[in-house]
Amino acid sequence: MEAFYEITDDVKRDVLHATDLVALIGGATTLKKAGNAWKGLCPFHGEKSPSFHVHPAKGFYYCFGCGAKGDAITFVRETERLEFPEAVAYLARLAGITLPMRQRGGTRVDRSKETRVTEALAAAARFFREQLTRHEPGRAFLTKRGVALDEAGTLGFGVAPDAWDALKAGLSDTFTEEVLVEAGLLQKNPDTGRVYDRFRNRLTIEIRDPRGEILGFGARAFGDEQPKYLNSPETPRFSKGKLLFGLDRAREAIRKTGEVILVEGYFDQIAFARAGLENAVASMGTSLTSAQAGLLFRQAETVLVAYDGDRPGRAAAEKAFAILLEQGARLRHLVLPDGDDPDSFLASNGVSALREAVAAAPPFLTSLIATLPDSAADPADRAARVKEIADILRAAADPVLRHELIQAFSRATGVPPRLLSGGAAPRANLDEPSKEPARISETEEVVLSVLLNEWPASAPLVDRIPAEIFSHPAAREVFTALKEYDKGLPTLDFSTLGSHVGVGAEALLARLLVLSPPDDDISTGAGPDFHQGQKGRLEGLRNKLLRLKKRHLEEKSRELQHEMERAQVSGAPITEIMVITEQLSRQKSALASEIQRLNRESKTVTKVRE
Ligand SMILES: [Zn+2]
After folding, report:
1. Per-residue DSSP letter, 333
2. Residues 136-158: tens digit of each pLDDT
3. By CB distance 3.0 to 4.6 Å, which of 61, 338, 421, 475 could disulfide with 470?
């Protein structure tokens, strides 16, 4: 029978409250503290300067570049491609909350299949680690690579025994065959229907998401058996082209150094980590994808490419440069001696040699120029190589960067830039911001922003202001949602507020919550100044509110004027027209005197404030 999560508003709120939004989003992009928010490069569109904001206190994110916005659930839905209930379940799992489940028909069950798959992967990891402790060849294999048994666990190593059903037997008490197949741990022979272990007689390596949850396994043969590497099958969550091996352990070091080292294989990543260079990640054997390049530049400004020193390794590095240049600008290249990979280089030259090589690694262009054959030798060879390098440089998405690279390369080779630019059509600008919604007046924006950001101190004021003074429909919608917001809740959260407004108003809401109110001294700290600043800002609103009110009345007055004019040309009996005109002009003069009163009031406010 099909089971489903029972997600009530309370459950949703609990999960959102238990979620560390900065840590969650920090897995996809590096965030830096800015006032009471966090800023970073947007994980949803390519950009070079950060316009992506995260507001942990209010529980939402917003991008000024592409307009991406939402709460933790939206974020997980979009980055993990999960449906709403699965996204809530994902967050619940991270927070250690068990979600209530129900089967169609009403019986409660405890867990969903998706959760069971994740649990099965974690159980398999424990099983493989356990096998390693008593697997002599496995331990010898790791020792030979300098990995001590006590660090093997942290690095995610294990052993799949040489048997068709070792894991199957080990886990079948706890998990159904269906879940184990779904997790990619067992596989089914389509002809015989036999179900057996996917990984056999191999060293296993846990592949985790940036937050450390196990998504699948890589498995290496102990000898030369083919295939040398075998992975978990591809699923929407376990997609090698979108993952970087080691990122969960490397994140902190990447943030500290501002650089990420890109390597090809698991053992290279581990070699760097063992040399104390913990900011390395691996693209896992396949050639680098745009998704991975984007992920790299969201973690750090500079990428150091450290591929194998042989010909294929160099060729792969040059392919990676082109892909990386579509997403970022700063690249360095660690060139290892021919025949060495980072792992073997560390083994034969030691830690300090690897660290020195990393420190001395030149910018990628310098490294490319060094490969040019001597012009005195074969001119045809040199010309071919010049063209190859120009092709790489032209991959830069940023036109200014592309120009600068071509210029620098031209100076180095003496080949005029116009021969190097190749007449390639400029790429579409990825940073093009999305269309702005219809213009909203600055006064309305400031008023709403202060009311939102000074919550709950602004609540009494919100009660007194009529919604009609906002003329922009989205502004009015946000304000109405604020008016209806539960005054008993101590903090405003985006999720609750956002669920009461339409899409356009939700975008405005996100933008205003991100924008600090003017004269922002609130982030300087708590204490007496904090309340002083807050009081000042709310008082500073009076004049703006009066202005909005006045504008609203003036608009109404203009409408009345039109109505009178329409009545006069309507062809109605003259007495009727006189009555209507009389009524309308009375209303109009009432408005006029109220406007005058507002004018006087606003002068007093200004004087008092001066
Ligand atoms: Zn964006």
Report:
1. E
2. 999 999 998 888 888 898 889 99
3. 475
